[in-house]
């Protein structure tokens, strides 16, 4: 059975502990409609959502408390310190592709086999259960598979719904996907890496996406991704090396020397240029 591993599901934007409501207002100021999310299983994190018409969404997330809230040595503190995003600086910290919610047709096994066959070294952990409770009390469940080979945020993780995706991604009514900025979907996700890492990460991403780049130069490698709603204009995944002081500083200050630097949004009309989220960069791409 062919398993699709190239559908962009969501992007994760982190803000400091306890700031989901504040971040929601900041994204509203950028021209996005923000919907309530909920608290994740275990109570460590909470989120709000920005749902786009192409089916991709933004997860505005924060830890509910700083690490110091939990007494040292307690199970809660160990769980907080061991969280995948516990050491991430605020901003665009991660991105997810859509999984299939199946343990039988395992995405991690499919990618790991590609990694071995192609010699890229791409390696994913076995699927683990995850979930959250919405403000209305609805319980959501999914399966997560994350990369082992690089720090999260350079290779995507996979989120596959066990409960219906419509419960996790509230795209109904259609007005939920309408935004003052006229954003309709993702134009690109731009990841920066050190020059020495470009070739290795490019090979691993090819194994993950499951198809070859649509273009490749010494500075930028580009893949075309799919969306849940099969948007005519496909999002692009851009992997490149930094240019300019801001981009060099971003890579140098990154936990792993790599990460999502910029996200582009497709908008109706002539809106162009770039702006800053509370801790990241966005660009507007007219359709």
UniProtKB/TrEMBL annotation:
Highest taxon, organism lineage: Eukaryota
Span of domain Glyoxalase-like: 8-205
InterPro entries (UniProt xref): Glyas_Bleomycin-R_OHBP_Dase, Glyoxalase-like_dom
Coiled-coil spans in chain: none
The name this protein goes by in its record: Glyoxalase-like domain-containing protein
Source species: Psilocybe cyanescens
